[in-house]
Design a protein that fits this description.
The chain is mainly beta and 76 residues long. It has strands spanning 9-11, 16-23, 26-29, 32-39, 42-45, 50-62, 65-75. Strands 1, 2, 3, 4, 5, 6 and 7 form a seven-stranded parallel β-sheet that branches. The chain starts with 8 loop residues before the first strand and ends with a strand.
Length: 76
């Protein structure tokens, strides 16, 4: 993830979301997500986050817990 990127969306620690998520920039998740993520942007998984998903993204920075499959085009 480049240092010039800014987070354009934020899922707080008390957020729970289930479904399909698609985005094009950078988001940070500190809550619980279950489903599918498809993005040509960056995902930041904060400490305490729980992600249960199949992901195809550009890059991911993991500080929390991931259950699922990650395909990253650039970097994990």
């Amino acid at each position: 993830m480049q240092k010039t990127e800014t987070v354009t969306a934020f899922f707080g620690k008390d957020t729970e979301f289930e479904g399909k998520l698609t985005f094009h920039e950078s988001i940070r998740m500190d809550g619980h997500f279950k489903g599918e993520i498809s993005a040509d942007g960056s995902l930041i998984v904060g400490q305490g986050a729980l992600i249960e998903a199949t992901m195809h993204i550009s890059s991911i920075l993991i500080g929390g817990e991931i259950h699922g499959t990650i395909i990253a085009d650039e970097r994990i």
